Amino acid sequence: AGGAKVIDATGKHITAGIIDEHSHIAGAGGINEGAQSVSAEVRIADIINSEDVNIYRQLAGGVTTSHILHGSANPVGGQSQLIKLRWGKSPEELKFVGADGFIKFALGENVKQSNFGTGARFPVTRMGVEQTFVDEFTRAKEYEKAMKVKGNSVRRDLELDAIVEILNNKRFITCHSYVQSEINMLIHVADSLGFKINTFTHILEGYKVADKMKAHGIAGSTFSDWWAYKNEVAEAIPYNGKIMHNVGVTTAFNSDDAEMARHLNQEAGKSVLYGNVPEEDALKFVTLNPARMLHIDDKVGSLKPGKDADVVIWTANPLSIYAKAEKTFVDGIAYWDIEKDAQVIKAQQAEKARLIQKMLESKSKGGRMQRPMGDAPRLYNCETLENYSAELTEKEHAH
Questions:
Q1: Exposed (0-12), middle (13-18) or buried (19+): which is 1, by Cβ within 10 Å?
Q2: Over the stretch 249-273, which tens digit does the pLDDT of each residue have?
Q3: Over pLDDT 90: what percentage of the chain?
Q4: Could you tell me the pTM of the whole model?
């Protein structure tokens, strides 16, 4: 186009921006509303924090789009929010316009409060988890029927509104999952009650149920090689992504972790190591495939005329541990530039040295000294507990 800036990328590697299907960055004040078994009415959209430095750090890893999810403290969690990493913009400007709505469901130890130190709410067993889903969708069907018959005389219920959207294919489920038996259970409940599961996330026993996932059109967003970090992942294997992919399941690798999201290109590279996944398919695990899961592959996920200009320039093959993102573009705007970042770091170091010298001079003159003020930043994952947990409990669960 006339007047466009031309960048010489000779010898570089260029890819579409990386998409993190499962993230917990850019949230303010916690991501787990777990004091009740169903919290479908709460929305991540209401707490987006555009000043979270992890947005910038993940741009440095080539990430351009993140799916910000509720945690996994209850069977039916809150509504998620898809964002583009437009660092420096307002919360509303981060939101991915026109994207479908998603909601977080969860199975496993978290939802039955195995590690929370409390049995204050239902469910506390796996059979209770199943019944929670049955009861919620039964109530939603009754609510929808009443709304059609009685109209505005029925009291509005924001929780059930979200579940009705699922029944009508207007909101889509991303379900935290690990164990084969529970995955089978939710598929059976979905078949019985007439709703669809869009994605099983984590899905570390996906290799056991890949055929069922394929038959039901369910995608799998997993880890590359996380295993044995808690009891319910004891049978996880690093070939999980490869097996699901070979069966025909739309497969992606996600982070669930602010630090790992900076290296999702390397996570994709591990699938080449574990099972010899072709490099092009491996790269799709963090680009086109998560775009398909999130129903945004018409806009992002690959380099194609007419799609959003979310582009990364790499110093080397992006699947290599030596690759660095030189520039990361979102909608054609460079939000990350490795050379400009080096200049910023240099300026920050100079400012830090100036402030330290000023403090030392103050101390030498008898000035009052004090420790740094303020809380340390928190990195969230699925299991991070918030308001209803004591600080001691939070420390015990940190990993």
A1: exposed
A2: 999 999 999 999 999 999 999 999 9
A3: 83
A4: 0.93
Looking at the chain, the whole-number percentage of residues with pLDDT higher than 70 is 94
| Residue 312: strand, helix, or coil | strand
Q: Is residue 210 part of a domain?
A: yes
Distance CA 214, CA 219 (A): 8
pLDDT of residue 395: 39
The DSSP code sequence of 284-311 is HTTTHHHHHHTT-TTTSSS--TTS---E
pLDDT of 93 strictly over 50: yes
Crossing angle (nearest 10°) for helices 158-167 and 126-150 = 90
Token look-up 């029927």 returns 145
For residue 88, pLDDT beyond 60: yes
Give the separation between CA 272 and CA 280, rounded to whole angstroms: 10
For the segment 309-337, what is each residue's pLDDT rounded down to a tens digit?
Answer: 999 999 999 999 999 999 999 999 999 99
For tokens 């790499």, name the residue.
Answer: 314
* Ramachandran assignment for 122, one of left (phi > 0), alpha (psi -120 to 50 degrees), beta (any other): beta
Query: Which of 359, 350, 368, 273 lies closest to 319, judged by CA?
Result: 273
Q: In Å, what is the CA distance from 299 to each residue of 64, 92, 183, 223, 305?
A: 12, 19, 31, 25, 10
CATH of residue 209? 3.20.20.140
User: CB neighbours (10 Å) of residue 210?
Assistant: 22
Q: Which H helix or E strand runs over 205?
A: none
**Residue 241 and residue 280 in contact, taking contact as beta carbons nearer than 8 Å:** no
- How far is CA 378 from each of CA 42, 123, 146, 333, rounded to the nearest angstrom? 21, 28, 43, 29
> Do you know the residue count of the chain?
399
**DSSP output for 213-246:** HHHHT-EEEE-SS--SSSGGGTT--TTHHHHHHH
Tokens read off for 252:
């992606």
Q: Could you give the number of structural domains in the chain?
A: 1
| Tens-digit pLDDT profile for residues 163-172 | 999 999 999 9
Q: Is 104 helix (H, G, I), strand (E, B) or coil?
A: strand
Asked whether residue 91 is domain-assigned, the answer is yes
**120: containing domain:** 13-397
Residue whose structure tokens are 């699925």:
382
List beta partners, residue 15.
312
Is 193 domain-assigned?
A: yes
Residue 3 in any domain: the answer is no
What is the pLDDT, as a whole number, of residue 369? 83
Strand, coil or helix: what is 172?
A: strand
